[in-house]
Design brief:
With 498 residues, this protein is mainly beta. The protein has one helix and 42 strands. The radius of gyration is 33 Å and the shape is flat. The two termini are 62 Å apart.
Length: 498
């Protein structure tokens, strides 16, 4: 393994501290011991060094090592994200033969150096940020023989219980063209890998066939793959690396992992069918459209199915949303309510992707949440709004503890002969400090006044955006469906005078 995790207990709670570990010589230095004004610290063979920066000079450390012609050495640094490291490599004559400024996926620098002739070589680690040195100004340097090849695989693989899957392992060979034997560690019970587990000579990849037994558990397990090869007279072991996705702020943490997440999944025992799946539905802005679905369950499955929005939508949502709708086991039909904001564009279609979630036991009897996408997207064409609200707040300034009034006007379409409730919506953090009784406008009424009471609390001071919201409830196939319009206005609450 590459790291050791220590659980540190503190008066403020426990935390995990990660320590890098290596199977080579390890030492520590400071920039005073190995910097520009000192002789290079000599390293013998593969080594790892942890260093600290004590001064603001550019050259943080200098190391030397003896190398033989034809050898390929890997020089690599890592540091906290606030440091900017560069590597320069020099021969005995002081001529620069290699350098690297930045790695593409994390902080630090690295370079592979092919030695042109026998001799002593020097690497200079430079720090270019110019930031003041503190306890966080530490770096790590690793000197090791470069691996003759590198191996990679996808970060994750999902295979259904009772089915087969394929895992592709790729090789970046460099100068080595021989066969590479693959070893798999940590395969869970019930999963078998088919032979041969080898990347043939002069080939750059192999696809490993994995078979999951019918009685295997549905679970997710990190597995480790290692490549082995005889390079000359030595056995070389190289881990298969996968990209560590999702890092939006590169640091000294590894950008690759030495594991593949292998997930065994269950086949859903239900399907979601959108009725008239190819139809484009005309929907008014601000209304709630009940999309009709049929839930088909396999024989013997009578569990509830939850219908909800998928995390990844096919187009810009622009605020459309839907709740989590639970369909009981004895129901075959459902209407999923799609709320369409009043600001949606009318010159394009809007689509919503929904999915089902249901609890199913795996072959070991353990409950698992099984997801299934609907067989089509809900496609809607937008028409004009049925309800609009406008306020007459103007430039509103209110002192904390005072009461103010905001007149509002609503407009209904002839298609909406319904009462309308008007209410005030304020930011959640001040909801307990501002009150306004909702107003109900009967059919034929179009004006109301929101009487707003504020609390004398300094937390109200500032410039706020409040919202006047109008809601009508249309009858739907499974209950009332809201039609919503809202209008924002700015409120200034001065700070109390001292």
């Amino acid at each position: 393994q590459d790291t050791w995790i220590y659980r540190l207990a503190t008066p403020h709670g426990d935390t995990d501290v990660s320590f890098p570990i290596v199977a080579v010589a390890e030492q520590t230095v400071t920039s005073s011991q190995a910097g520009a004004g000192s002789d290079a610290v000599h390293l013998t063979g593969p080594s790892s060094v942890s260093g600290s920066l004590e001064h603001s000079g550019i050259v943080a450390a200098r190391f030397s090592w003896d190398a033989t012609q034809g050898d390929v050495w890997r020089l690599e640094t890592s540091a906290n994200a606030n440091l900017d490291l560069m590597l320069r490599v020099f021969n005995e004559a002081g001529k620069q033969i290699a350098f690297n400024d930045d790695l593409p996926d994390r902080a630090g620098a690295a370079v592979d150096v092919r030695i042109p002739k026998d001799g002593r070589y020097v690497v200079a680690i430079e720090e270019q940020s110019g930031l003041p040195r503190d306890l966080d100004a530490v770096f790590r340097f690793r000197l090791d023989r470069a691996t003759p090849f590198r191996l990679s695989a996808p970060p994750q693989l999902a295979i259904a219980v009772g089915a087969k899957g394929a895992l592709k392992v790729s090789a970046d060979r460099g100068d080595y063209e021989g066969p590479i034997r693959l070893l798999i560690e940590g395969l869970p019970e019930g999963i078998q890998a088919a032979e041969p587990l080898e990347i043939p000579a002069n080939k750059n990849d192999v696809t490993i066939s994995l078979e999951v037994a019918e009685n295997a558990a549905a679970t997710a397990t990190p597995i480790r793959l290692v490549g082995e090869a005889m390079v000359g007279d030595r056995l070389v072991r190289v881990p298969v690396l996968t990209p560590a996705a999702g890092n939006l702020a590169p640091t000294s943490e590894p950008s690759h992992l030495a594991t593949v997440l292998l997930a065994t999944t269950l086949k859903p025992r239900y399907t979601l069918h959108l009725i008239d799946m190819n139809r484009q539905r005309a929907v008014h802005r601000g209304t709630t459209y009940p999309a009709p679905f049929i839930i088909e369950r396999e024989e013997g499955f009578a569990g509830d199915v939850r219908i909800q929005m998928a995390a990844k939508q096919s187009r810009h949502r622009q605020g459309i949303w839907g709740p989590i709708l639970t369909v009981p086991g004895d129901a075959r039909e459902a209407f999923y309510p799609c709320q369409m904001p009043e600001w949606l564009e009318t010159d394009r279609t809007t689509r919503m992707v929904v999915m089902g979630v249901a609890s199913q036991p795996d072959p070991q009897g353990r409950p698992r949440e099984v997801m299934q996408a609907a067989d089509a997207r809900i496609t809607m064409i937008l028409e004009g709004a049925l309800l609009r609200i406008a306020h007459e707040a103007g430039e509103l300034t209110v002192r904390a503890g005072e009461t103010c009034e905001v007149p509002v006007t609503i407009a209904r379409s002839k298609k909406l002969p319904l009462p309308v409730q008007v209410e005030l919506v304020v930011p959640e953090e001040i909801a307990h400090l501002v009150r306004a009784a909702p107003q109900t406008l009967a059919i034929g009424q179009s004006r109301a006044t929101l009487r707003i009471e504020t609390t004398n609390d300094p937390a109200l001071a500032g410039v706020w955006t409040w919202t006047a919201r109008a809601t009508a409830l249309e009858p739907g196939p499974q209950g009332p469906l809201p039609v919503i319009s809202q209008s924002e206005f700015e409120v200034v609450i001065p700070a109390a005078e001292r």
